[in-house]
Design brief:
The chain is mainly α. The chain starts with 5 loop residues before the first helix and ends in an 11-residue tail after the last helix. The strands form two sheets. A two-stranded antiparallel ribbon has the order 1-2.
Amino acid sequence: MTSRQAPPVAAVSALLIGLGIGLALRGVEPVATWLYVVCWYPTIALMAAVVARAEGRDPFTGHPVHALSLFAWSAVFWFFFELLNWRIANWYYVYVPADRVSRWIGISLAFATVLPAIFLAARVQETWGILTTVRTKPFRITPFGLRVSAVTGVAFLALPLLWPRFFFPLVWVAAALLAEPALYRRAPRWSLLADLGRGEAGRLLRLLTGGAAIGLLWEMYNSFARSRWIYTVPGLEELKLFEMPLLGFLGFPVFALECWSVFHLLASFGISTPEERLAAPVPYARKAATAVLGVAFSVFVLSGMERYTIGSTTPSIAEVPGLPSYAAQKLAADGVSAFQLAEVSASDLARTAGGGVEEAARWGQALRLVTLRGIGTLNARRLAGVGVRDIATLAVQDPDSLAARLRAAPPKGTAPFRPTPAEVRVWVRAALNATVPERRPAEGSE
């Protein structure tokens, strides 16, 4: 993209973002489910256009191998945090596509935007002259300090795995503490520690502020999407902006630093491809081997996410508990979703499906339960199995005892530890809010 092409690209990108959000808010599929991808790629194009307008060319089309490497390693890098989440259990995903191939493609495409978004956010600031000449007192870097950083990084990675309830925030610092000492030794031109050693804080500050801005966008787009993540962070459930506990926003700036350090540490080994061309070519075999390992790791984590972090898939009308097959066929024939049917009156459901109004009222209750806060059809069937068939009944349950009952007899082929107590607390809180809006559960109930 050249500077001349940048304005129309920026205009089209902004239009696509606005259109996507508008369609998602109206529940139009497939945009509502795929909104995160629908919005993030135009957002990246918009930022790239800003850079191209200022510099004459954007950083991706001028170096497509770098772009491919950045998007690919972005997905692999985030899969590492998904792996950690199996233990720390701070978030899970709801209403993801029911088809596994579509689901895995969608997840990978979404994760591939992480590094490009953060790097471009910092680059946009640089092109605008923001935080470009920030001078500080040079920071003394010593071998001992580098060893302390590395050891601390190992500790910050181990503690959350051993005691996740108390130390889970440390995972967002560990990678930077581990990567920076090695990057400082191998490629100081990319090292943030080396910047501080020279008294130059601009790049670090641009990454911090860019990470904060991108984190806000991540959470905003997620809040508009039907397929989304939900946080279950211990002790931080009361005050939220979008889905994120307010204190959680402090993690995005630090996360941006480790994104930079890890990607460029990989580049120093010839694994990833930086924007700056390397003096010596990297053996093709090394890149091919690491690419295969990256794909294998991603598939491994995606398989584990099916058990550990995917809470529900897009509801199928045919699988709504208590909805007879003749009614499901007639309702599905109209091409409407379970979310749309959940808002239809009992008389309209009866008229469409051919049942009685009283019977249709029970169908409506089941549909509203399925579409409540990521419950989905499988979990609704589990709830029906323990006598919870509507939102009003769910609202009066004790979350921990309900979770224990649900996990006592898991359906065949499902994980015996799902749903988690944290997920059930999310459901009960949502049911309380849906039945009596002015009531609020006791602190810590979600």
